[in-house]
Amino acid sequence: MSQDSRLLTANLAAGNPVAVRGHGVYLEFADGRTVLDGIAGVGVACLGYTCPEVVRAMTVQAERLPYAHALRFDTEPLLELAAAVAEVMPDPIQHCYFVSGGSEATETAVKYARQYWLERARPGKWKVIGRWPSFHGNTILGQSVGWHSVRRSRHLPLLTEFPHIEAPDLVHGCGHCSGRGSCDLGCADELERALIREGPDTVACFVAEPIGGAATGAQVPHPDYFRRVREICDAYDVLLVADEVFTGFGRTGSWFAMQHWDVDPDILIFGKGIGGGFAPLAGIGVAERTIAAFRAGSGRFEHNFTYAGHAVACAAGLAVLSELRRRRLVERVGELEPRLFTALAEVKDSALVTDVRGRGFLAGVELISRPQLPAGQPGLPLAQMVSNAALAEGLLVYPCATSLPGRGDHLLLAPALVMPEDLLDELGRRLRRALDRVESADIRP
Question: Where do the DSSP E strands lie in 66-219?
């Protein structure tokens, strides 16, 4: 981007590369470079950048009916997508509401939880318990529920001070575990202590990512963590909200990550993969028992966005879902998970790496917190230096800043669910070369 560009962008100092074309799992830039996309946009382009079936479905719908205001009208793709998504959701989730992105979906979920308790004639239940670190979107409410210090610090005066508990950390241990690699579920029991402190009659819901993304770098909890959380929510009459914006629709080798542990949330937030990058699409799924309270009460969910349930976006979602099923891509991720993590084993012995973790096609590479790098390195965070070096090697990764003192930054990898097996190996090789570049101060972007 040139200095005279009229675009307001996050990177005002230097601008961003201009992407001009995507094909398969590659992205092309205006300067002629073609790079392997190891993050699928940002966990979005699950089918890669080429899928004629999705484009056709969008074209047909755009020609027939591009838009109808969802507060007043349903459309055929909206109704069909709700039914199709409900089929792959955890069993109690039977109803869906569609919006344009994950941040809007978080807003929708919290407003739904609040209104649920109003329908139950319990107006005192309004608080949301979140976790630290976590990320639930960039809106003011999303940052209030989440806890990502870098992203929320500038906006603290605007945020609602919701309570937060510590997220599980099997890599470093947390304040409740006896040491690294151990977990006695004290992190889950902290939810009960928080509910007692706040008063359970004031708490509407608990919101958590099954497997963390930008804030925790693909941290996977103890397999009994969410089972214990479900028990606590039931005991204190609190709704359990699973934020599966990153993990949903096959990213971890099951349709939704909560299914790995056979735990059913009351509300499930989804996004990213459902639109495949072809259209902005996200939403929530809600349990039948919660809808019953609305039907027995006001009969109305007081909420809407202008582009909620957009007809063309829903047509895209239907086509993406059809491709996920037809090509058995969710099952494919489960089958190829070992191949990806074997490929990433190549980076484990880098002096800059402290851990590689994740599930399915979602991987986090944690970097050391205080790197001893050669003189002359630019004053950039280590994750950004590695990302720049990876770009020089023809690979896109997602650099993420740490949210906790004493922890290193991390890189996220989330390849398209269609990425060929040999390119999973190539991804590992290119990332290792990028790490070597940074160690040797050869990090030209």
Answer: 93-99, 127-132, 164-166, 203-208
User: What tokens were used for 168?
Assistant: 């599980």
**Identity (one letter) of the amino acid at 420?**
P
> pLDDT value at position 444?
46
Q: Which two tokens stand for residue 257?
A: 């990550």
Per-residue model confidence (pLDDT) at position 12: 79
Two tokens at 389? 């070096």
Could you tell me which residues come within 8 angstroms of residue 199 by beta carbon, excluding any fewer than 6 positions away?
A: none
> Nearest CA to 89 among 239, 240, 267?
267
Angle at the Cα of 16 (from 10 to 20), degrees rounded to 5?
130
Residue 221 has pLDDT above 90, yes or no: yes
Residues whose CB is less than 8 angstroms from the CB of residue 413 and which lie 6 or more positions away in sequence, other chains included: 38, 39, 340, 344, 358, 362, 363, 364, 365, 397, 398, 427, 431
Which residue from 51, 241, 40 is spatially nearest to 129, judged by alpha carbons? 241
Between CA 57 and CA 44 the distance in angstroms is 18
Is the four-CA dihedral 19, 22, 26, 32 of positive or negative sign? negative
The amino acid sitting at 33 is R
pLDDT recorded at residue 375: 60
* Rounded Cα distance, 252 and 260, in Å: 9
Q: CATH for 52-326, among 3.40.190.80, 2.60.120.10, 3.40.640.10, 3.40.50.1820?
A: 3.40.640.10
* Six-digit token string for 430: 């290119």
Look up residue 38 and give its DSSP letter.
S
pLDDT per residue as tens digits for the range 157-170 = 999 999 999 999 88
- Contacts of residue 372, defined as CB under 8 A and 6 or more positions apart, other chains included, come to none
Burial (CB < 10 A; 0-12, 13-18, 19+), residue 150, is middle
pTM: 0.95
Residues 18-35, mean pLDDT to the nearest whole number: 96
Q: 150 with 130: CB under 8 angstroms?
A: no
At the topology level, CATH places domain 19-50+331-439 in Aspartate Aminotransferase, domain 1 (3.90.1150)
Highest-pLDDT range among 182-196, 331-345, 431-445 = 331-345
